[in-house]
Amino acid sequence: MATASPATTIEDLHADMLTRALRHLDGPALAAASCANVHLRSLASQPDLWCDLCLATWPALHHPRLLRLLSFFPNSYRSFFSDAFPFPSPLTVIPPAAGDDEASLPSELISAVDLQHRGSPILSRVLETDTSTAWFRGAHFRLDALDPKDSSLPTLLAAATPEDLTLNWIFIDPHRRRAVRATSRRPVAIDKHWITGETVVRFATVLGDGCAIGVVATCVEETGQVREVSLTAECVDGVCLSGRDGLAVLRAAMEGSRRREEAAEAERRLWEEFSGLRMRRKEAVSRREQMVDLVCAAVAAAGLLALFAVTVFR
């Protein structure tokens, strides 16, 4: 009677073959593979796997300073990926930092910005921003990836559609070695500028009911040039946060948990809910102002009538 041969398991495959297969996985799948068993965890934890994955996901990381910086992250590129790939969880907007708390805000931010169309690169920039100055913390929280006066503005590919644009804007705190994704990957809204006719593509991440971080990419339809890629942080009333408040929000997002869902529809739904809430608040403020105007008009009219009556019956 023939003896049945033992079943072949994945651990029987040569390590080089398994490593080659792991290189074809994306980040979430590679992380899941590392949880299967001890052997796969050892192979999936190889730093070069996560390095290649990060560089393929975010081409801006090829910048020499970032290559040096990420090597000092805890667990190197794997730690960076777990920080930067998932979206930050909604958080409660914290009040303006003051006194000793202000010293804990990031004193420098590095932005890795990649704008692509169906995987083809359009813009790849690294911005280094000194956020420790009183000017930055007192002004509006706004960063521009492009200089509108630049004669070599990036150009969309032929037949490119705004709906197929993807954006990665990653904030990195080089001193605390933490990172966070700033916006959605896919557009949450596409509009036409009512004066210039330019296409305005908006990417956004809603951090709770009180705050959202958004990037506006403005495209000139006639030339295909991308004229503006700017990031702002604004509250639900539509007011841009100050640099100090924006840094406080980013610090909380970096230190907070991450969401697991990656669907573009979820980001678009959150933005629509945020925009609807902002519109309702504006309408409520407008109604209050109209009521105040009516009361003031009524008081003024009553005063005029009283003055008229006093003059007539004196």
Topology:
Layout: H1 15-22, H2 27-33, H3 38-44, H4 47-57, H5 64-70, H6 76-84, E1 108-117, E2 120-130, H7 134-138, E3 142-144, E4 165-173, E5 178-181, E6 189-192, E7 199-206, E8 211-219, E9 226-235, H8 243-255, H9 264-312
What does this protein structure show overall?
Keywords: Membrane, Transmembrane, Transmembrane helix. InterPro entries: AT3G44326-like, F-box-like_dom_sf. The chain crosses the membrane at residues 291-313. With 314 residues, the protein is α+β, with helices and mostly antiparallel strands. It has two domains: 24-80, no CATH class; 90-278, no CATH class. 37% of the residues lie in helices and 22% in strands. It has nine helices and nine strands. α4 (47-57) runs parallel beside α6. The mean pLDDT is 83.
The SSE string, one letter per element, is HHHHHHEEHEEEEEEEHH
| Cα gyration radius (Å) | 26 Å
What is the general shape?
elongated
Strand elements, count? 9
Largest sheet: 5 strands, antiparallel
Low-confidence stretches: none
Task: Count structural domains.
Answer: 2
Helical content stands at 25-40%
- Strand order, biggest sheet? 3-9-8-7-6
Give the end-to-end Cα distance, rounded to a whole number of Å: 130 Å
By DSSP (H or I, 4+ residues per run), the number of helices equals 9
Class per helix and strand makeup: alpha+beta
Transmembrane segments: 291-313
Keywords: Membrane, Transmembrane, Transmembrane helix
InterPro entries: AT3G44326-like (IPR045283), F-box-like_dom_sf (IPR036047)
Protein name: (wild Malaysian banana) hypothetical protein
